[in-house]
Amino acid sequence: MREKNKIINDKLKKTLLIILQLFLFQVFGQNSNGVKYQFAKEVFKKEYKKTTFESFIGEIERLNENELKFKDKILKIYSNDTSLVKIFSKGIFNPEIIFGKESTKILTKNELDSLSINKKIFYNLTRNDSLTISNLEELEKLNPNFKTKRFMFWVFRIGIVNPQECYFELQNEKGNKDMKMEEFLENAKVTFFYRGSIIL
Q1: Which of 125, 134, 133, 146 lies closest to 188, judged by CA?
Q2: Which tens digit of pLDDT belongs to each residue from 65-114?
Q3: How far are the Cα atoms of 69, 93, 132, 137, 151 from residue 167, in angstroms, in the given order?
Q4: CA separation for the pair 45, 39 (Å, rounded)
Q5: Is 168 helix (H, G, I), strand (E, B) or coil?
Q6: Any idea of the CA torsion for 66, 35, 97, 171, to the nearest 10 degrees?
Q7: Bridge partners of residue 198, in order along the sequence
Q8: Residue 83: is it exposed, middle or buried by C-beta count within 10 angstroms (0-12/13-18/19+)?
Q9: Which has the closest alpha carbon to 75: 58, 92, 62?
């Protein structure tokens, strides 16, 4: 009898644990999505200033599946959505939008070794020759019309562990409700970019 009760209790505990996990996943999943949109909504409401950024002029070299080279800057993009990656491979959004046209002088290993710890940290903080982008997604709920699409991504810089959350907007004056992303990108321009908070 005791053995039977123990088996029943174990089954009940497992069932309750599964229910609790599903509940927590549902609650925190919805909350994190809500927080994401709430913060992004504030950015576009308070920081928005329409500015048209030029697409990259020059050859964009594809180094591998995830890396693109824009002159002397390398952009690594990790996304499962190939249509969104085209925002970068077409040069619509490019590293110059984040850090300007100037490039950091790359130091040799010997030059790096000769720097003090503080100078090494400063050097890494100012490097702009290689950036990594992940968590790229469209913020569909914040698109004000069919001619405008808003996005967010995380950018990782060399020497800095935590990424920075960034927001940008694309506009296509010919955009309409039936356009697929690839068609929308044909005449799209970046019309807003904002570097947000560091993700802890």
Answers
A1: 146
A2: 999 999 989 999 999 898 999 999 999 999 999 988 888 888 888 988 89
A3: 22, 11, 15, 10, 6
A4: 10
A5: strand
A6: 100
A7: 164
A8: middle
A9: 62
Please identify every stretch of the chain with a pLDDT value under 70, giving residue numbers as ranges.
1-35
3-class SS shares of the chain: helix, strand, coil, % to 5: 40, 25, 35
Q: What is the residue whose two structure tokens read 């591998």?
A: 64
Q: Which residues pair with 195 in a beta bridge?
A: 166
10 vs 173: CA distance, rounded Å: 62
Distance in angstroms (rounded) separating the CA atoms of residues 159 and 142? 33
Torsion of CA 158, 151, 68, 165, to 10 degrees: 0
Name which of 101, 91, 97 is nearest 51 in CA terms: 97
- Of residues 22, 49, 36, 54, the one with CA closest to residue 154: 36
Amino acid at 1: M
Q: Give all strands of the β-sheet with 67-70 in edge-to-edge order.
A: 60-62, 67-70, 73-77, 130-138, 148-157, 164-171, 189-198
- Token duo for residue 15: 């069932």
The rounded distance, in Å, linking the Cα atoms of 33 and 54 is 31
Please give the pLDDT value at position 129.
87
